[in-house]
Amino acid sequence: MDKQVLRKSGLLGVGLFAVLQATPSMVSADVSANVGVSSNYLFRGVTQTDNSAAVQGGLDYEHASGLYAGVWGSNVDFGDGTSYEFDLYAGYSGAINDIGYDVGYIYYAYPDAPASIDFGEIYGELSYGYLSAGLAYTVNSDNSTPELFVEGDIFYYLSAHMPLENDFSAGVTLGYYDFTDDKKPSVGEASYGHAAVNVTKDAGTLGSVSINLEYSDIDPDSDLGSVNSDDPKFWLGWSKSF
After folding, report:
1. pLDDT tens digit string along 19-49?
2. Would you give the distance in Å from CA 62 to the centre of its chain?
3. How far apart are the C-alpha atoms of 31 and 69, rounded to whole Å?
4. Distance (Å, rounded) from C-alpha 95 to C-alpha 126?
5. In principle, which of 11, 112, 140, 240 could form an S-S bond with 120, CB 3.0–4.6 Å?
6. Consecutive H or E run containing 20
């Protein structure tokens, strides 16, 4: 379902954009849009498109106070007719001395799924220099039977992002997804570790291009198995904000 590591780049709706344009008290706010394509859509190391390409985009609203909100969407393919994902999120970010923080809530929606599989998370991140650490905790879910992405699931991660010469940058993320229903008969041993590395080139007005490699030690016999084997996954991405 990398939505940055936790929250996705996203767009707020046209209606809110009109309100912002018309409200003098929000002159310190900023609205931006983004679009992107990728050869595979991976969410915490798990393919959301059956290892096929994705087209994505969204809107973000950010206020000088640190408040932000956004929407983001992408095509998906879960093999059951579900064809797209639509996310809503809001949060607050800032810094105390040299320590950055970001807390918020994100709702993952799949409007055309045969049965509702929507879920929501609260997330938090601390950052210092090139390093960051955070977690996401599932607080609500429409899955009513023992399954994945239900209340109590937690994703932890550590990451580093470093600028390089000639507008290149490199990033590394290590994470672990701890499923509350892990090892139940309907789920299997689904909890897994995740590692990702990427190199990105900022091409200015042409956007940015990234080369990515991800690995997840997913048990092929678990509910996440099949296309989500423990083979390393290589994918290319392009994105542009405006």
Report:
1. 334 444 445 679 999 999 999 999 999 999 9
2. 18
3. 10
4. 9
5. 140
6. helix 14-22
Tokens standing for 55? 């087209």
User: pLDDT tens for residues 185-212?
Assistant: 888 888 999 999 999 999 999 999 999 9
| Tokens coding 34 | 């983004």
Which candidate, 241, 242, 219, places its Cα nearest to that of 230? 219
Cα gap 242→2, rounded to integer Å: 19
Residue type, 33: A
221 exposed, middle or buried (CB, 10 Å; 0-12, 13-18, 19+)?
A: exposed
Kindly report the CA angle at 75 between 47 and 229, in degrees rounded to 5? Answer: 10
Amino acid code (one letter) for 158: L
Which residue(s) pair with 130 in the sheet? none
Torsion of CA 38, 239, 55, 135, to 10 degrees: 80
pLDDT at 236: 98
Global pTM value: 0.87
- Looking only at the bridges linking them, the beta strands covering 84-96 and 192-202 are unpaired
Q: Which of 148, 206, 207 is nearest to 181 (CA)?
A: 148
The CA-atom distances, in angstroms, between 6 and each of 58, 79, 87, 91, 209 are 15, 25, 12, 12, 20
**Letter string b/e over residues 96-121, b meaning 16 or more CB atoms within 10 A of that residue's CB:** eeeeeebebbbbbbbeebeeebbbbb
